[in-house]
Specification:
single chain; alpha+beta; 1 helix; flat
């Protein structure tokens, strides 16, 4: 069971982020860093959607 994050830009899915670790503290730090990188890459209209892959 893995937690993955889909990146939506302007309502369209552009990529999927798969963190290496699934601990909550590690995910929180990873997503904070990735969100900053994604905003620099795509602009302000970025939305992250979390889902679980089995």
């Amino acid at each position: 069971m893995n937690i993955v994050f889909d990146v939506f830009v302007n309502g369209k899915m552009t990529e999927t982020i798969r963190p290496n670790k699934s601990r909550l503290r590690d995910l929180q730090i990873f997503i904070a860093e990735e969100a900053a990188n994604l905003i620099r890459k795509y602009g302000n209209n970025v939305y992250l959607s979390r889902r679980v892959e089995y």
